[in-house]
Amino acid sequence: MRIRVAVVVVCGLVFSAGLAADEKSDQDKIQGKWQMESGMRGGKALPDENVKNTVIVIDGNKMKFTRTVDGKEQTREMTFKLDASKKPKTIDVDIEGKPGLGIYTLDGDTLKICHGEQGDERPTELSSKEGSKVTVVVLKRVK
Fold this sequence. Notes:
Blueprint lengths: L1 H21 L3 H4 L2 E10 L2 E2 L2 H5 L1 E6 L2 E8 L2 E12 L6 E6 L2 E10 L2 E6 L19 E7 L2
Antiparallel strand pairs: 1-2, 1-3, 1-9, 3-4, 4-5, 5-6, 6-7, 7-8, 8-9
């Protein structure tokens, strides 16, 4: 009887440890290189040139945007903080000491981020309505 209980306890611990190892935070899951797939601002699609030439590399709590325009590479780095416990999930970005408030969804290899301009209130939904200053971007993980 004691052996059975010990086996059950050990199996339970091994199983729960495996689950804990599989449960990564969103912060862990978004690490890596992302290609912009689409984007909208003020209800209008972002120019194809901006979309297809934009790559974001996430390393820790830092984002590095790289866009190639007319053969010239432009980069911008910023730090960010995620809060997956909120509904919708939030992302706060620090751009040169100024906060930018947004929301995001992460579904496998697709990351969607919605934000206004610096100093604007946080959006409440992942949409960019006509005439707004809200931008929504869809990113796909580069494998």
